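Support request, please re-run this one:
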Amino acid sequence: MMAPDIKFQDIKANGMTFTCRTCGLENDGDLVIFLHGFPETSLMWQAPMKELGARNCRCLAPNLRGYSDGARPLELEAYQCCEMAKDIAALADEVGEKGCKFHVIGQDWGSVLAWAVATIFSERVQTVTGMTIPHTPAFKWAIENNPEQVDTSQYIKAWVSGERIDWFYANDYEKLKSYYEGFPQYAIDEYMALFTRREVMEAAGKWYRARRTIEASDIEYHDITMPALFLWTNRSLSSRRAGAERNAEYMKNYYRFVEIDGGHWMMWFNGEQCTREIVEHVTKFPIK
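Re-run finished. Output below.
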């Protein structure tokens, strides 16, 4: 089967409108939902979406709450993970059937949200794939017990204080531009057009501010009971080895941990390996 085209689609869900990329929604196979990180969009998922679309899957990648113009509430409380997880379940209802099962995949903040979705909607999630950030209990443990992770996570304080946006924007967006070094120009163009809009960066910052610290969890996390894949790069900007290796303690079904020799932007610089792992995991555990 040839890979279907990637399409743009506005989808109304949970009282908001999400700008989404879709692939193969006309197929009749499993629903797969992709959750991007910061500062990125659904653009990062095109390769695995095409691969899975060619395998009869129905793929959906929303620009998440705060990143879509039609889904940018002002209230800080709206950016708690428990609220944003409802977006994903509602989007699944819209493109599938109400209460349908789906696979969920996330990187960076999208990984945090994917683990939350797998926790709150465990009866609906067929498989979960986290990338960069381990399940919240493992990450929380690392922040509390591992000095390297404590040091790495200090930047979160600048988001909470409100200083981080000006850091990104100083000297003609110098720091923001540096994040995208080596990216293809079409990605740089999309990302710079979006993230130089202060209202978008303020909304993205509310993900950090609403969480405040990893200890201030809005969800009662438990062990992961569905098949799980965790892809971790050993030169990540935000996640160190201690939490990545502890992740296994919370996985109570099939679990695969893959260490990748690379930096934070794994879908751009390790995309072939990541796509292969994602496709293998999803297709290994089809929805019956």
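The chain has a mean pLDDT of 95. The first helix runs from residue 46 to 53.
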